[in-house]
Amino acid sequence: MPTSPPVVRPGVAGPRPVEELSLAQARRVALRAQGLDRPRRPLAGAPTMRHLQQVVDRLGLLQIDSVNVVARAHLVPAFSRLGPYDVGLLERASATPPRRLVEYWAHEASFVPPTTYRLLGWRQREWRDRAWRMATSVLHTHPHLVDEIRDLVAARGPVTAREVHAEYAAEHPHRREDWGWNWTVSKRVLELLFFAGEVTSAGRNAQFERRYDLTSRVLPPEVVAAPEPRDEDAVRALVEIGARAHGVGTVRCFADYFRLPVAATATAVAELVEEGVLVPVRVRGWDRPTWLHRDASLPRSASGRALLSPFDPLVFERRRLEELFGTRYRIEIYTPAHKRVHGYYVLPFLLGDRIAARVDLKADRRAGVLRVPAAHGEDDAAARPGPAPSPGLVAAELAAELRLMATWLGLAEVEVPDDARGTLAPVLRRALASGAEPAGSSAR
Known about the structure:
Oligomer: single chain
Helix content: 25-40%
Distance between the termini: 34 Å
Structural class: alpha+beta
Strand content: 15-25%
Number of strands: 14
Number of helices: 18
């Protein structure tokens, strides 16, 4: 079995080679593509903008979520790969010209590089066309307001939805029975303009509110001046970004990364195969066509360690996660408390090439404590046969990672309360009390 992916050169006649990967090899390819296959590299100082840019280049996007139980979702993937870093770097990247990141609907709400934003123009046009067809759209119910708010943003931007609403509160008061997430009419207009690509976020304020401005003023000038890509070219480019970030995957995997139509993704995959960008590969145990990105590589082993946000790209596609790692993972934020199995805000814990545990976490900033209401070990024997690491080893590695996260969050200690749920909780409590780093620890 070769230890590196085949090289397929475009234009070479004859059948293309089909490589076979075991499930363990596919896992390692995926972990290398995500930058999670080895311990964090020791740095001479704190991570810099260059290091953050490397994470962005590798992942292609950072999903945004407003839940701040531990840290906002877009902040955690960089911590998982870099260790403690200054979150102000990400604020600078998204709020200070020339911006390295801008917001749009990619894999849900996301930060993407400005060049990737331009690849999503077809989605903006689809949204605008749909809004024109919907009788309930704010374009039909308040057409004059759309023009007025567009002009207001042009004259006064960046502005928040709250600031815009203040201008129209008398004419359009906020009613709790309003459409959507109790959005004001002004917010509805701004979101319409946002999805249509006319305005975007120039950054977020301390309350995590978008500061809307004209897209032409937010994107770097060279990106604004670049020609609009054809829809099929844009989709193909997005599929390649997703395929590179996955390393190996199916049409469903690649489509999910930017929430692309499956049929358009399948067409793009066929074209990328013809170009030699994607290589057909067989993953033992998978029952559908799979492809390897030409830049993918297969490490001999995986020795990294990381707590993963519920919105980390490694866990985006739940079927893929379950088939690769044997981990069935669901977010239980919206599940009634008495029906939750693992907890409110649960982070998978990656150890080597296993999802070895999952922990429910809460940053108690007032008390300066990272609390662990639950800690569960994982049974991944179906996807990862062979001896699993002992609960003591998993707990020791997890304790070290939790202490690292607490340091990053500015919290003084990690606490597993006596009533914490999960069989790993008492073992983790003892590991934290010992204070010892595990042998060969991957912590920085």
